[in-house]
Each structure stands twice: as structure tokens, then as C-alpha cells.
Amino acid sequence: MEQLVKHPFAGASLARRRFLAAAVGVAAIPLIPLRRDAQAGTEPRLVEARLAPAPATVQLVPEQYPSTGVWAYNAAVPGPALRLRQGDRLRVRVENGLEEGTTVHWHGIRLPNAMDGVPDLTQPSIRPGESFLYEFTVPDAGTYWYHPHQHSYEQIGRGLSGALIVEEREPIRVDRDVLWVLGDWRLERDASIRGGFGNFMDLSHNGRVGNTVTINGRVPERFAVRAGERLRLRLINAANARIFGLRFLGHEPQVVALDGQPVEPHAPAGGVVVLAPAQRADLVIDMLGEPGSRHEVHDTFYRNLEYRLVDVAYAAEPPLRTQPLDASIRLPANPLSEPDLVRAERHDIVLTGGMMGNMGGLPRGMAWAVNGASSSCGSGTVIDPLLVLRRGRSCVLRLVNETEWHHPMHLHGHSFRVLARDGRPTRYREWLDTVLLAPRETADVAFVADNPGDWLLHCHVLEHQASGMTVCLRVA
Ligand code: C2O
Ligand code: CU
User: Fold this and answer.
1) pLDDT (tens digit, 9 = 90+) per residue, 141-181?
2) How high is the pLDDT of residue 374?
3) b/e map of 273-293 (b: 16 or more CB within 10 Å)?
4) Domain ranges of the chain
5) pLDDT tens-digit map of 420-437
């Protein structure tokens, strides 16, 4: 894998951070101007938005370097953050300004199958110049995101993604609610996006891991905070393939939600917040550093490739408060059905293939298999269900990674509880929609198949998704 330090603007390595001359703050993402039919009160509202995926030019790297041609929603990377409240109805018109077909998948939010955005499985592809209307009610609060589900490794890899934030009806008390959409790019020296999307090397190894990491579409230098404030930091990993392992030096973040779903508040294992592609984490951080001080945030996931992501920079002003805010950080649960583990049906989902694994006998262009078969999804591919689950049944899937690679496995239309890893019960039984399997690891996940339709289960390393690591589960 490439070192981040090859490009002067490509993130600041721990050793060579001085090369990054520009002082760029973490950009705030503009909220989309939303039309709401009722502003006040807690009544559910209809929230309308327009998303126009099309080529655009943005400044990913510091100002003294060139801008980058991308594909973007509404000319912004990431796309506009759609913010609504639990129970609201979202209506989004997607107008395709790309030269190829696209769709929008609303990652992690439970919705009707017809709104899931998988071409040919749940809707026809939106052709260039055409539009499609998505409309659904959001049952769960939390941090979600949206992205294309067609030719994903290139459409997402060129910049198409954005946040979908659903606020609790009664949110926890914080001073600031901050969003970091983490991006990862493979750039040339002139800051243009390197081609070669979908090459077999990327497909059969760890995917298209880039050389430039962005927060909210910019290579960041500092993140400005005030002493004493309490932050809710919503992290979204929108990268094709990069896994992050974030360490907030001098701070003690508490994880309060994973993949949008509340979790018992806890310090991350080993002090590192691990975030695989498509995963989200909501952190609560009390900013207890000294006014004027700086603290680094490191990404330590890949051994010997650690780098400094950004500095937390305290303003000189006196602390907002001297003691941490005395308020609960426990989020209210979402209305998910609890799986019945005694009566659940059980299935094994076995992942094989990849470099150093068994790729023999796989169809051309395929590098991975699930239960011995390779499929991808995307325009023109019909995918037969691997399993048919009776609606309302509880289901335990044992996901078995027999490869030498990491795979974040994502199930559409449902959240699942992670019951065990390698047979050992998990401490928090967290609800996720994307579970990261380490090489050779097994995870048992449970959910109630209560959402009818055909739902994909696939690796969210987008190159793996396209080269065999995709199956479909039918709930009927
Ligand atoms: Cu985030 Cu099937 O996708
Ligand atoms: Cu994978």
C-alpha cells in the first residue's frame, strides 16, 4: 500500500508533518436548503431536497495546489448534509447529470425496498438526464449517509457521497454537533484523480486505498475547539477501502452510537476508534485541554503507515466551563425489533478468495466468493437470492471470513446485533449495519427479517463488492 507522504499535500505523516504548510481548518458542510412544510413543534414534517450528481471542480488539497475534477452532488464534496428529525418524511429528487446511469442508496436507514437504490434489483438505473424521486419516512435517529449504488467504486471514489443525519426527538445535551465525513483519494501530483478504477490489483487485494485523506472534502490542518465544550462528533467513513483507526491524543472520547444506533457509552477499545468503509461512529468528547494548546489526532490503523490526520487546536479564550458538563450522554434507543435467539433460523455466510486465498475457478474478473459463488450488483445484473427468509423471522448469520483480508459486511434494509466474534460474546451487543471482519475472523449477527424485499449483503470495500462479494437475501 502506498505511503501517504508521497504527495506534499497528502495528509501529514507523523514524521514529516512540517511539509504541510497550509493551515486549513476542518470545513463545515453546508446544510442543504430544505423546504419544510411545518417548522415548529415535534410533528413529523415533509423535508424536500434535490440532489444533482454531476462533474464538478473542488479544492480538496491546500489552496497553493490545483483544484480537483470530481463527481459531486450539487457541486460539493461531500454532498449536502441532509438533516431531519426522527419520524420525518424525506423526499429527494435526484437529477442525473453524469454521463452514466446512477442511483442513490440511503445507507443504514430502514426504508421500503423500492427506495433502496440498487439498480435492477429495486429500481431501474437513473439514466443520464433523467431523474428519480425517493421518498420515505425515517424511523431511526442517528448518523447515516447516502451514495450511488451503481459502478460504486468509481462513482463514490470520484466524490459522490453525503451525510444523512436524523436527530433524536430528545437529543443529548452537547455544545456542538460536528460532522466529519472522512474521504480517501488516490491523487496525482497535480491533484487530479488517478484513473485505473476497478483494476484487478485493487479488486483482489485491499481495494483502492488512496494517498490523500480528507475531512469534509478538505485536507485538514486543524480543528478549532474551545476549552470546556462538549462535542458530539459524528464520523462517517465514506472511503472506498481505507479503514481508519483514530486516536485522539490527550482526549477521552466516548462512543455513544455505532452505525447510527445507540450503544452503551464506552471508551473505544485500546483508545482507538476503528471505522471501516461505510461505518459511522458518534463520539462525545469533553474538550478538557488547556486554552491555546494543540493535540494531534492520529490514524493508526495500518501498521507502519500511521499519520497525523489533524490537530485539535484550542482557542485562547478561557474555558466555557471548568467541570465537564453534567448531563447524560446515553442516547434513546431506536424502535428496532429484538431478535428471538431461541427460535432464530441460522445460516453460514462464508467468504473466500482474494490474493493468497483460493481464486481458482472463479469467473473472469471475479476475485471473491460468498458460499462458493461470485456475484456483483449493478446495472444489467440480476442476482438470485442466496436465502429466502420468512417475514418476521429472527435470523442469525454466522459470517465466516476465510480470507487474509478485512471485509466490512453490510446488510441493506436492516440493522443487526453483533452477538459474538470468533465465538466469544461481544461486550456491547452493538447494533450495526456494517460489521468489520478481520482476516480469518467470524462474527455472529442477529436480526429480525421484518422488512420485505430483496436486500443486498455485501462487502463495503467497493472493489470487493464488484468482484464477487455480493449476495442478496429475500425477505418474503
Ligand atoms: Cu453503502 Cu450496498 O451500500
Ligand atoms: Cu471485502
Assistant:
1) 999 999 999 999 999 999 999 999 999 999 999 999 999 99
2) 87
3) bbbbbbbbbbbbbbbbbeeee
4) 16-167, 176-314, 345-475
5) 999 999 999 999 999 999
Give the pocket of ligand 1 (CB within 6 Å).
Answer: 105, 107, 147, 149, 278, 410, 412, 456, 458, 460
Whole-number pLDDT of residue 382: 62
Please tell me the pTM assigned to this model: 0.93
User: Which element (helix H / strand E) includes 41?
Assistant: none
Give me 267's grid cell: 471508551
Asked if 463 contacts 153 with a C-beta cutoff of 8 angstroms, the reply is: yes
- 296-312: average pLDDT: 96
Element (H, E) at 253: none
Going from the Cα of 36 to the center of ligand 2, the distance in angstroms, rounded, reads 39
Do the Cβ atoms of 191 and 63 come closer than 8 Å? no
Ligand nearest to the CA of 352: 2
Domain boundaries 16-167, CATH class: mainly beta
Give the DSSP letter of residue 355: T
What CATH architecture is 176-314? Sandwich (2.60)
Nearest atom in ligand 1 to the alpha carbon of residue 145 is 1
Q: Which ligand is nearest to the CA of 146?
A: 1
Residue with the smallest CA separation from ligand 1 atom 1 is 107
- Report residue 369 as a C-alpha cell: 466468493
Residue 38: the pLDDT is 43
Before 262, cis peptide (omega within 30)?
no
Per the CATH hierarchy, to which homologous superfamily does domain 345-475 belong?
Answer: Cupredoxins -  blue copper proteins (2.60.40.420)
Closest-CA residue to 179 (of 99, 87, 54, 80): 80
What pLDDT band is residue 376 in, cutting at 50, 70 and 90?
confident
Q: Given this model, what pLDDT does residue 244 score?
A: 98
